[in-house]
TrEMBL record:
Function (record text): ICAM proteins are ligands for the leukocyte adhesion protein LFA-1 (integrin alpha-L/beta-2). ICAM3 is also a ligand for integrin alpha-D/beta-2. In association with integrin alpha-L/beta-2, contributes to apoptotic neutrophil phagocytosis by macrophages.
Organism: Sciurus vulgaris
Gene3D superfamilies tied to this protein: Immunoglobulins
Transmembrane regions: 528-551
Keyword Aminoacyl-tRNA synthetase part of the UniProt annotation: no
Protein name: Intercellular adhesion molecule 3
GO cellular component terms given for this protein: plasma membrane
One Gene Ontology term of the molecular function aspect: integrin binding
Subunit field text: Interacts with moesin/MSN.
SUPFAM superfamilies assigned: Immunoglobulin (SSF48726)
C-alpha cells in the first residue's frame, strides 16, 4: 500500500488561539490516520475553534482566484487499484492540492469509516472488503466538482489443492496420467496449476472451472521409482503488489516396477527321503526394484521360510526343507515371485519316499578266538541288500553269513549295501560293523631280530613288536641282571648290554617270550684284532717272498756250461743241505 499524502497548512496566525482554562492550542505539523481516541468536551471545543480559524486564514486569500484555476488541482485517490485479501480492510486517502477544496468525500458501496479530514484531504477506512469493487473520491475546488476513481481487487487463496491418487505400482514403460483439482481461488485470471515431479515442471495450465481440473501424461521409467509428485496452485499478483502466492498439495510417491515375462528358475531334487534335509533354490533375473519383490516357497501345503539375497536385478531365494512322513508320495514344489501388481511362478515335481535300512547286526562284536559269529543285514520292504558281496535272494529279504573268529578276523569290517529304485533313479546306502577278536599276545620273529651284533658306545634302536587283543605290554629284560633295555627308542650301547634278553609280551590273556641275544664288541679288542690281522698278512707276504727268492736261487745254482777246458780245478755243485743252511742264515 502506498503511503497516504496529507496537505500542509502554512497559514499565518497572528497569535495562537487560547482555549478556556488557559490551554494553548497549537497547530499540528501532521495528522495521524490511526484510530482516534475520544477526549473530553473541552478538548473537542478547542479543536473546532482551531479548525475554524484555519479555514478563515486559508480560504479568504483564495476567494479572488478564478474558476479556471480549480482544474489545475485534480483530486487523487490513494492507493490506486489496490489488491487485498478477502475480508480485509483498506485505508483510502482522497487528497488535492486545490487551495480552497470543499466537501471531499468517498463514494462506495462498501462499509466505510471516516478517519479524519483537513483542508485538501480526507481519510477513510474500508471494512470487510469481500469482493471486487470500485471507489470514487469527489470534492469541489473553487466551485468546480472534482472526481477520481480506483478499482479494488480482492484475492482469495485456493481452499484446497489435491493431486489425484497415484496407482500403488506403475509398470515401467507405460503412460501415467496425473490429475490435479483445485477448489476456490481468485482472481482466476491470475491462478495457474502446475504439475511437478520433484522440482521438475511437467505441466502448467490455467485454472478453469470450479473445481478446476488439469491433467498431464508422462511415461513411467525406472528413474521415477520413489519420485514425489505434487500439484501446485500459483496466484500471481506480482504486478499489482502483493506478490506470488503458492499452495501445494500433499506429495505422493510413485513406485515403478519391472517384472520379466519368464518364470523363475527352480532347482530342487527329483526325490527326497522322509526325515532328510535338502535345499531348494529359486532365482529370477531382471527385477526392478528387486528389493520390493515378495517370494513364496511351498512344498505341497507346507509353506517354507526362504532366505532371500539380492544382487542388482537378481533375486535368489533358498530354503532348507525336511520332508515329513505324511508327505510320502508325489509332491510339488512351488516358487512364486510377486512384484507390484504382477507375479511369476515355477513348479517342480518330486517324490517323497521312505528308505529303511540297511541294518547290520552281529551276534557278538567282541568274541574270543574260535567263536562262531552270525552276521545279518536287513532293510525295508522294497530294498535289495548285499552282505560282503553276497546278494539277498529278493528285495525285502535279509542277507546272512556265519564265521569262525580267528586272530586274522580281529578288526574285520563287515559291509552291507542296500539299493532302492525311485523314479528310475537307483539309490545306495551302506553300513559297516567291526568285529573284535580276543586272543593272546604274540611276538613275530620277523619283527623282532633274535641276534644282534653292536659295537660299544654306538647308538642303536631295538626294534621289536608284539600283537594281541587286548594289546599286550612288551619289555626286554637282561637274563642275568634283569636290566630292561629300551624298545623302539634310540639308546647308547655299552659293554654291559652284552648278553641274552627275554622279550616278553604280557596281556590279560597270557604271556609270550622271545629270546634276543645281543653281542657287544669292545673297541680295544677290535683294534688288537686288526693289528694281529695286519701282522699275519705281513708274515704271509714275507714267507711268500722268501719262497720265491729261494726258488729262484736254486734254479740259478744247478745249471753251468763250460765253453773251454781249463787247467784249473773244476767247480762242483753245492749240496742242498748247504743251500738250506745258507738260506736260513740269510733269513736270520
Amino acid at each position: 500500500m502506498q503511503p497516504l499524502h496529507f496537505c500542509n497548512l502554512n497559514c499565518w496566525l497572528p497569535s495562537p488561539p487560547l482555549c478556556p482554562a488557559g490551554h494553548l492550542l497549537k497547530a499540528p505539523s501532521s495528522l495521524s490516520l490511526a484510530t482516534m481516541t475520544p477526549s473530553s468536551l473541552l478538548q473537542g471545543a478547542c479543536r473546532t475553534l482551531f479548525i475554524f480559524q484555519l479555514l478563515v486564514c486559508c480560504l479568504l486569500p483564495l476567494g479572488a482566484q478564478s474558476q479556471s484555476q480549480s482544474h489545475e488541482f485534480p483530486l487523487q485517490v490513494e492507493p490506486q487499484n489496490p489488491v487485498l485479501p478477502a475480508g480485509g480492510s483498506l485505508l483510502v486517502n482522497c487528497s488535492t492540492r486545490c487551495p480552497h477544496p470543499e466537501l471531499i468525500t468517498l463514494e462506495t458501496s462498501l462499509l466505510k469509516e471516516a478517519l479524519g479530514e483537513d483542508r485538501g484531504w480526507a481519510a477513510f477506512r474500508l471494512l470487510n472488503v469481500t469482493g471486487n469493487s470500485r471507489i470514487i473520491c469527489s470534492g469541489f475546488c473553487n466551485g468546480s466538482q472534482m472526481t477520481s476513481s480506483s478499482g479494488i481487487t480482492v484475492y482469495r487463496f485456493p481452499e484446497r489443492v489435491e493431486l489425484g491418487l497415484l496407482p500403488p505400482w506403475q509398470p515401467v514403460g507405460e503412460d501415467l496420467t496425473l490429475q490435479c483439482h483445485v477448489w476456490g481461488g481468485a482472481p482466476r485470471a491470475q491462478l495457474t496449476l502446475v504439475l511437478l515431479r520433484g522440482e521438475e515442471e511437467l505441466s502448467r495450465q490455467p485454472a478453469v472451472g470450479e473445481p478446476a481440473e488439469v491433467t498431464a501424461t508422462v511415461l513411467a521409467g525406472r528413474g521415477d521409482y520413489g519420485a514425489n509428485f505434487t500439484c501446485r496452485a500459483e496466484l500471481d499478483l506480482q504486478l499489482r503488489g502483493p506478490g506470488l502466492f503458492q499452495n501445494t498439495s500433499a506429495p505422493q510417491q510413485l513406485r515403478t516396477f519391472a517384472l520379466p515375462m519368464v518364470a523363475p528358475r527352480l532347482v530342487a531334487p527329483l526325490s527326497v527321503e522322509v526325515g532328510t534335509t535338502w535345499p531348494v533354490d529359486c532365482t529370477l533375473d531382471g527385477l526392478f526394484p528387486a528389493s520390493e519383490a515378495q517370494v513364496q516357497l511351498a512344498l505341497g501345503d507346507q509353506m517354507l521360510n526362504p532366505a532371500v539375497t539380492i544382487h542388482r536385478d537378481t533375486l535368489r531365494a533358498t530354503a532348507t526343507v525336511t520332508a515329513r512322513a505324511d508327505q510320502e508320495g508325489e509332491q510339488q514344489i512351488v516358487c512364486n515371485v510377486t512384484l507390484g501388481s504382477e507375479s511369476r511362478e515355477a513348479r517342480a515335481n518330486l517324490t517323497v519316499f521312505t528308505f529303511l535300512g540297511p541294518i547290520l547286526n552281529l551276534s557278538e562284536t567282541n568274541v574270543t578266538e574260535g567263536s562262531k559269529v552270525n552276521v545279518t543285514c536287513t532293510a525295508g520292504a522294497r530294498v535289495q541288500v548285499m552282505l560282503d558281496g553276497d546278494l539277498a535272494r529278493a528285495p525285502g529279504e535279509p542277507a546272512q553269513l556265519q564265521v569262525t573268529a580267528t586272530e586274522g578276523d580281529d578288526g574285520r569290517y563287515f559291509f552291507c549295501n542296500a539299493t532302492l529304485k525311485v523314479d528310475g533313479e537307483v539309490l545306495h546306502r551302506n553300513v559297516t560293523v567291526q568285529l573284535r577278536v580276543l586272543y593272546g599276545p604274540k611276538i613275530d620273529p620277523a619283527k623282532c631280530p633274535q641276534r644282534l651284533a653292536w659295537k660299544d658306545r654306538t647308538s642303536h634302536v631295538l626294534q621289536c613288536e608284539a600283537r594281541g587283543n587286548p594289546a599286550p605290554q612288551l619289555q626286554c629284560l637282561h637274563e642275568g641282571s634283569g636290566r630292561e633295555v629300551p624298545i623302539g627308542t634310540p639308546f647308547l650301547v655299552k659293554l654291559h648290554h652284552n648278553g641274552t634278553y627275554h622279550c616278553q609280551a604280557v596281556s590279560p590273556r597270557g604271556m609270550y617270550t622271545l629270546l634276543v641275544v645281543m653281542h657287544v664288541q669292545d673297541r680295544k679288542s677290535h683294534s688288537i684284532s686288526i693289528l694281529i690281522g695286519v701282522l699275519v698278512i705281513l708274515g704271509v707276504v714275507t714267507v711268500i717272498a722268501s719262497l720265491i727268492y729261494i726258488f729262484g736261487m736254486q734254479k740259478r745254482s744247478g745249471n753251468y756250461r763250460v765253453n773251454q777246458p781249463s787247467a784249473s780245478v773244476p767247480l762242483k755243485p753245492k749240496q742242498p743241505e748247504q743251500t738250506v743252511e745258507l738260506e736260513l742264515s740269510a733269513a736270520k
